[in-house]
Amino acid sequence: MDLFIADLHLAEDRPDISARFEAFLHDQAAEARRLFILGDLFEAWLGDDDDAALAAWVADSLRTLADKGVELFFMRGNRDFLLGGDYAARCHMRLLPDPCVITLETHPTLLMHGDLLCTDDLAYQAFRRQSRDPVWQANFLSQPLAARRAFAQRAREASKSHQSQLASHITDVNADTVRRTLQQFGITRLIHGHTHRPARHRITLDDAVPAERIVLGDWYTQQSSLTIRAEGLSLLPTPT
Ligand SMILES: [Mn+2]
User: Ligand 1: distance of its center to the CA of 78 in Å?
Assistant: First the structure.
């Protein structure tokens, strides 16, 4: 059984989400063969040298799960895009590039965090390009932790105000970008998070090829996960 989660947005001031995550790791996750975390596990990530208690607790919890034999994979989101190889090694999880292709029960599947698909949000895409630049990242990571914390706080406030000014279709994926991306990879199933709009969307590619886009939910008020078994697929909470 393969399990997928995203957008937990774990934060020091949200112990309720950490408690939900702890329960999930003890129950469903312990039964899985593989657990894929598709980004935004953390509300913010300032660098692998961050000494916050939350990061240490998550590393211990994930390593404990890995030691039970569950294979762990992590793809960076737009909040934790600075999570690096050092921290991944502490968690005993492998880093995945965004996008990446895996085979699930013989079905090739494209995995993404999802922010790359939101191409109508031009300001965000510009920031994304800038902040994925190795020189920008090295410069950011060379600053003292306190300065990085202050920057992240300002960035979160700016992002909140930016999001609140945008129509909801701008902050969602662009349908053409989704189709183009799937066609480019020659793949008919996509799993992503980021938009916090859990759903299973039937889509049609060129030459009437049917495809599916599965969107994972966030963890603000409940556990959200996708389970894939040979018998089928279940998305929780069930999309309304
Ligand atoms: Mn995100």
Answer: 5
Kindly give the distance from the C-alpha atom of residue 132 to the centroid of ligand 1, in angstroms, as a whole number: 14
Cβ(1)–Cβ(105) below 8 Å = no
Contact by Cβ (8 Å): 48, 84 = yes
Q: How much distance in Å is there from the Cα of 208 to the middle of ligand 1?
A: 31
List, for residues 171-200, the tens digit of each pLDDT value. Answer: 899 999 999 999 999 999 999 999 999 999
Structural domains of the chain sorted by starting position, each given as residue range(s) with its CATH number in brackets: 2-236 (3.60.21.50)
- Distance, in Å, from the CA atom of 233 to the CA atom of 38, rounded to the nearest integer, reads 17
CA 77 to ligand 1 centroid distance, Å: 5
pTM of the predicted structure, to 2 decimals: 0.96
* CB 38, CB 191: distance < 8 Å: yes
Distance CA 229, CA 33 (A): 10
The 10s digit of each residue's pLDDT in 25-75 is: 999 999 999 999 999 999 999 999 998 999 999 999 999 999 999 999 999
* CA of 50 relative to ligand 1 center, distance in Å: 20
